[in-house]
Write a structure and sequence with these properties.
The protein has 4 helices and 11 strands. By secondary structure, the chain is an alpha+beta fold. The protein is globular and about 50 Å long.
């Protein structure tokens, strides 16, 4: 189990919300969410703040090195894995002009992340542009969405529309018509990876 996954496990055991942990550590709820979902690196300073807020020793968070004879995390038949996401268990976290809920985050060594996202209608220059290794697809569940890219003209997507692109170029989204949009985002980062890629972000229109 990775450190981020262990933090999430401990937080839920102690019935502490991300908002409360953010208040106690001084770290933003979006940063904590990315740490828990292994999308953001965990420094010693952040580790100390989180361990103190959770009332545990750092040794309870940092995973111990597995012995050479340890059994692999994946079964011999990797297709045997199955995880269900129930709506009642979902927790959304604010991230700039969006609120995100990472689905299936308890599944180890997966090659993609699936995220439900609620997008606010903001000027594109007020949103955060991000890039990371791999590929991404976006499906519009509700509302109208505008997607901006580093190398391409913006695309406008309506309910039922979808787009697929290489995510190592700067990109960002915003909702249109003054109404929120709901989207399903899938990050695919390759079959040779065992953890999510680091996400780089920058504010403002390119």
């Amino acid at each position: 189990m990775k450190a981020g996954e262990r933090i999430k496990e401990l937080r839920k055991q102690k019935k502490i919300t991300l908002a409360k942990l953010s208040e106690q550590t001084g770290l933003s709820a979006s940063s904590l969410s990315r740490i828990e979902n292994t999308l953001l690196s965990l420094t010693n300073e952040k580790m100390l703040k989180i361990s103190e807020a959770l009332g545990v020793e750092i040794s309870e968070i940092v995973p111990a090195k597995a012995p050479a004879t340890a059994a692999p995390d994946l079964p011999s038949n990797s297709l045997a894995r199955q995880v269900t996401s129930y709506r009642r268990d979902r927790e959304f976290v604010a991230e700039d002009n969006t609120r995100a809920c990472y689905l299936f985050s308890e599944l180890k060594k997966k090659n993609m992340d699936v995220v439900l996202v609620e997008v606010d209608p903001l000027p594109i220059e007020d949103t955060e542009f991000i890039r990371h290794s791999g590929e991404k697809s976006v499906y519009v569940i509700k509302g109208k969405l505008e997607v901006h890219f580093e190398y391409y003209s913006p695309k406008v997507l309506e309910q039922g529309d979808a787009i697929y692109f290489d995510s190592d170029m700067w990109h960002s989204v915003t909702a249109l018509n003054g109404k929120k949009a709901e989207i399903l985002v899938t990050y695919f980062y390759g079959t040779d990876n065992t953890s999510s890629p680091s996400v780089e972000g920058r504010k403002g229109f390119l």
